């Protein structure tokens, strides 16, 4: 398998996937002063998504508990940022052929980027190989799973590196964007926010933090995540597909070889299949259980068929977890002087659709203070 880039997701979805370490330190100091302040929600979600993915894929948290990046983390961040930059030019050149002359594919820049990415990934792969050799107690992260299966499935090093980075680019911004849209809807709809918090208080209580095992008892929270992904699928046109045969759909001829985009955004807002499609009303999914992992064509934020998102359940769990923690720990309101309905839901156009105006929110704690302590997480295997 070639080392496939992920151009659709390489758009600048989260402008700052990491909160700069200096900003985090400052934030730590100012913790008390944040009370009542309007916060850039995207920055925090971007940092959480980054940590989630690097821990899943590499078993590493490149940030310490203070939010400071280590050397590898800085290099990793540089590679992600550069990928976003050069990926955007590839997007344009691929999708608007008559503009290609304006966006030369910059082969040299791609080669350099690939080399830099491969260099770092190989170092991390070697660390995992050594750790596995040295002790049986190592955890099975995605990189270990691939390295263990390398011989059995004849996986080249290029393939492994490509798969690792597919996970990183596909799983990071999508989850952070989904959570940001959901939080925007929750601040705009205090009724929904309160109902989700009442459920959390009933199920989790006020003396511990939520965990993934609580999800099955939090049906309304799950509906909130689903309703957010119905109205705001992060990849509204999915990934480009190619017709492998001549087909006729809805009276249109699609010749073999055509590049096809499915507008899942429009399908999920179609008044012919959704009642009050523009209303953010999670209850609709309590009334009717609609699958969102590729089986019900009214709701396809993860696509469908053999190229369906392989990280769908993981993505749902990550978004549900972010929302659950944010709602359980804090009551969220708009910045002072702004009404909930004035939150700007304009989309920034692109293959990945993020909020044009980054969400700002005021967080008021709801739990006892000892539940806000930062837990140090081991940055090793
Ligand atoms: C809310 C979160 C997510 C959303 C909305 C989402 C959505 C999508 C969509 C729409 C596709 C294209 C499907 C198609 O064209 O038919 C896709 C592909 C993909 N996603 Fe996700 N995704 C999410 C999270 C994740 C996560 C967490 C991972 C892994 C860590 C992941 C890994 C992938 C990969 C590897 C592909 C490419 C599959 C292929 O080309 O065969 N995604 N995703």
From TrEMBL:
Q: Which GO terms describe its molecular function?
A: heme binding; iron ion binding; monooxygenase activity; oxidoreductase activity, acting on paired donors, with incorporation or reduction of molecular oxygen
The taxonomic lineage of its organism, from the top, reads: Eukaryota, Viridiplantae, Streptophyta, Embryophyta, Tracheophyta
Gene Ontology annotations for the cellular component aspect, listed alphabetically: membrane
Binding of heme, residues: 309
Entry membrane topology: Single-pass membrane protein
SUPFAM superfamilies attached to this UniProt entry = Cytochrome P450
Keyword field: Heme, Iron, Membrane, Metal-binding, Monooxygenase, Oxidoreductase, Transmembrane, Transmembrane helix
**Chief location of this protein?**
membrane
Compartments it resides in:
Membrane
What name has this protein been given in UniProt? Uncharacterized protein
Pfam families xref list? p450
Question: Per its Swiss-Prot or TrEMBL entry, what cofactor is needed?
Answer: heme
The record, for InterPro entries, names: Cyt_P450, Cyt_P450_CS, Cyt_P450_E_grp-I, Cyt_P450_sf
* Stated family: Belongs to the cytochrome P450 family.
Residue ranges the record marks as coiled coil:
none
